[in-house]
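sry for the spam today, last one i promise. struct tokens for design, 307 residues
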């Protein structure tokens, strides 16, 4: 287990992290979310020991990362700006170099590099130095280096930056497969919440350096309602009637002809549709969908700001 406990960090008297705690288990994919300046990168850099923190503990299997450097063999990382690659080496040379730095070499490592090199679509650029690659392919080279020696824990800071749609899908499959078969743990920061929604088991949300939420995606969505209904009508509707129709917990926004509501049970939307049908009201737009990760995150932050 990788464990962060009561982590605090300040810059020039300004708090960047305040008593942040969470954990990451092998075989688990955890999202670290937050707006710019929320403390995500500071947290990742602290785990990698690229910066010193003020208070708190970071441990791997109960070993303090401040007192032992052996933990670095268990960590792989992709940092913003592709800083874990040497731009004068090819992607494969980088992967081999960083694996050897951590004491990993041999046939199995080379096979792993070859497999990942192909899976990331780098074979056609095999002879190019990283400095000559496109932004997206530089990111792929960084991913290859981070995964080359199959570390127990992989820290991915904005891993989809610059990647095309197909490569993002390939990356999702790689992360899922490695979490399940190799039991690697992944901590992923990303503004691509659709990507997060597809791969993560749990989510940690930071806001201005403080822990806002920690738990499963299902728990977050259940806490913030499970479904979303948007209706545009061709005529006004009596808003007071809606409260009777929507029994149970719900969050309603309406201007008489536009209805937006988050709710818990699919039966609640059926009551609304039956009512509209009985009144011969034809919706101009009707959308019913599960609450997305993006909506859940936005709602969580809005609720916090409104307190």
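last one done:
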């Amino acid at each position: 287990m990788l464990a962060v406990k009561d982590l605090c960090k300040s810059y020039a008297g300004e708090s960047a992290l305040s008593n942040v705690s969470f954990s990451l288990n092998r075989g688990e994919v955890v999202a670290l979310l937050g707006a710019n300046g929320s403390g995500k990168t500071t947290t990742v850099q602290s785990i990698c020991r690229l910066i010193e923190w003020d208070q708190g503990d970071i441990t791997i299997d109960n070993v303090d990362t401040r007192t032992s450097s052996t933990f670095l063999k268990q960590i792989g990382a992709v940092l913003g700006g592709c800083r874990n690659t040497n731009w004068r080496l090819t992607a494969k040379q980088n992967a081999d170099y960083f694996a050897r730095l951590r004491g990993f070499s041999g046939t199995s490592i080379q096979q792993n590099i070859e497999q990942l090199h192909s899976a990331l679509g780098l074979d056609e650029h095999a002879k190019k130095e990283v400095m000559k690659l496109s932004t997206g392919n530089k990111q792929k080279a960084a991913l290859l280096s981070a995964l080359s020696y199959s570390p127990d824990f992989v820290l991915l800071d904005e891993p989809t930056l610059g990647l095309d749609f197909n490569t993002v899908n390939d990356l999702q499959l790689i992360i899922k497969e490695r979490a399940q078969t190799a039991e690697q743990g992944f901590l992923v920061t990303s503004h691509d919440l659709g990507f997060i929604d597809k791969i993560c088991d749990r989510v940690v949300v930071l806001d201005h350096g403080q822990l806002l939420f920690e738990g499963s995606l299902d728990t977050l969505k259940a806490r913030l309602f499970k479904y979303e209904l948007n209706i545009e009508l061709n005529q006004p509707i009596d808003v007071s009637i809606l409260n009777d129709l929507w029994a149970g917990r719900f969050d309603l926004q309406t201007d008489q002809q536009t209805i937006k509501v988050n709710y818990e049970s699919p039966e609640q939307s059926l009551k609304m549709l039956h009512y509209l049908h009985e009144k011969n009201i034809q919706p101009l737009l009707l959308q019913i969908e599960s609450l997305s990760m993006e909506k859940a995150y936005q709602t969580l932050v809005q609720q916090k700001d409104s307190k």
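The longest strand covers residues 14-24. ok im logging off now
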